[in-house]
Amino acid sequence: xxxxxxxxxxxxxxxxxxxxxxxxxxxxxxxxxxxxxxxxxxxxxxxxxxxxxxxxxxxxxxxxxxxxxxxxxxxxxxxxxxxxxxxxxxxxxxxxxxxxxxxxxxxxxxxxxxxxxxxxxxxxxxxxxxxxxxxxxxxxxxxxxxxxxxxxxxxxxxxxxxxxxxxxxxxxxxxxxxxxxxxxxxxxxxxxxxxxxxxxxxxxxxxxxxxxxxxxxxxxxxxxxxxxxxxxxxxxxxxxxxxxxxxxxxxxxxxxxxxxxxxxxxxxxxxxxxxxxxxxxxxxxxxxxxxxxxxxxxxxxxxxxxxxxxxxxxxxxxxxxxxxxxxxxxxxxxxxxxxxxxxxxxxxxxxxxxxxxxxxxxxxxxxxxxxxxxxxxxxxxxxxxxxxxxxxxxxxxxxxxxxxxxxxxxxxxxxxxxxxxxxxxxxxxxxxxxxxxxxxxxxxxx
Length: 446
Fold this sequence. Notes:
The protein is mainly α and 446 residues long. It has helices at 5-24, 33-56, 73-97, 114-135, 144-148, 156-183, 188-204, 209-226, 232-253, 263-266, 269-285, 299-303, 307-310, 317-325, 327-331, 340-346, 350-371, 378-390, 393-396, 401-426; strands spanning 105-107, 375-377.
């Protein structure tokens, strides 16, 4: 399997994408949620697949301290089957539930007016957040460890409020991008240029690299909805180089003078997430931490309840993992993402991955049916774009983490947009109509 996996996942993903496009036909040019998520899983699977294969053949090594003592190839192959099974189950259930109707008609005029206020709000939050963190004694991102440890010693209430502020910041950024493109589709390249500047700043000056790349992805999604001729093929053509830049930026941010290009596939975000599943599958199979297995099925539900109401700390999978098994790294400020397949490893392994894939595919298809078919408002396009952009968190974090993120990210922004509409309607300032120049009256000869 280790030899076939780097080829199997792109082939399986390509087949599912072909089936989706065949079902969809010519209806709509926008990037479909199912297409986006399948591509995400292919990347998260193929990059470490190539890295492990090269290491197995003697080219380079997996640069992860958790595997310095070696790894079981059969265990790696089992995890690869989990990846493949999850994506197959997701694709089948998404195809079964997704219904493509008429090409959506867009109500872009409602974006004129709110888009400026959203841009100002996003700028204030993006620039103010690092400043506030520094005032509280944190370091917003000289490197990965400092960003994880930024507010660890702050009171719980401060951590909670800052966490909510971070989430609102990102949703405000996505809303500003969507509304700006919707308000002036012909000027969409200005939005792209502004985001390119933000991306360079984030990569070189210690800002949020992930937020910058996701904001650019939001632009691609919004452009595929509103800009005539901006088809999915153009989205993918722009997303490919952006992904490579994302990986290179991560390599540069590690500040390792010995790093070479093999590190792109043998370290970083995608490889670390794969190693999480390998490591946890080995530990749970050996009987470690059996007492917490059941809690993993309730993680996302408990996240909706503040810790103060529960009378104790909730299980945070990523924090529990590093604090339990790598305390020295945790104590130094380090951290890992967790991952949907790590949840599956804590359960039944491959059967768990199949069930989670089928459930997530059905939910995503149902949401896409309701958000992007037929008569589509800008507000619905914003929600859809947010969902497409953050879909990867369902794979990187926990299966239903998007439900929690929607409560803290989407609801505040949607409430602000509803309040803005209500205030403008109450003051008699409806969405401004386009000015039409009066035409000169024609004279008729009698």
